[in-house]
Amino acid sequence: MRNQGSFVMERVSYLRNQAFMCLQIARQTSDLAVAERWLVAAGQYFVQAAQIERQKCVADIQASIGEELRTELAPTNPLPESILKIVNEH
């Protein structure tokens, strides 16, 4: 089964491939108006890919920070019985 990161990168790759195909079509047409529409489409695909990559980057950073905080803030000694009793009552 694919993980979320793999799916995200496949989506980014798909969008970039779509953008490159749009660029190729734009280069092959002699109609400037048609070429412009293909170039706009390519730009939109590139923007979508960049946005997804940025979101993934932010999520990866947040996950790393969270893991670091869990490691740093993990109790090294068991809690005293009196504190466990209070915690379990609430």
What does this protein structure show overall?
It is a single chain. By secondary structure, the chain is mostly helical. The protein has one domain (4-89). It is built from three helices and no strands. It has helices spanning 4-28, 32-73, 81-89. α1 packs antiparallel against α2 (32-73).
Could you give a short account of the major beta sheet? none
| Count of helix runs | 3
Number of strands: 0
Which structural class matches the secondary elements? mainly alpha
Determine the fraction of residues in helical runs and give it as a percent range: over 70%
Measured on Cα atoms, how large is the radius of gyration? 25 Å
**Distance N terminus to C terminus?**
40 Å
Order of helices and strands: HHH
Low-confidence stretches at least 5 residues in length (pLDDT < 50)? none
Domain module count: 1
| Principal-axis shape | rod-shaped
Mean pLDDT: 90
Beta-strand content: under 5%
Describe this structure in a few short sentences:
Helices cover 84% and strands 0% of the residues. It contains three helices and no strands.
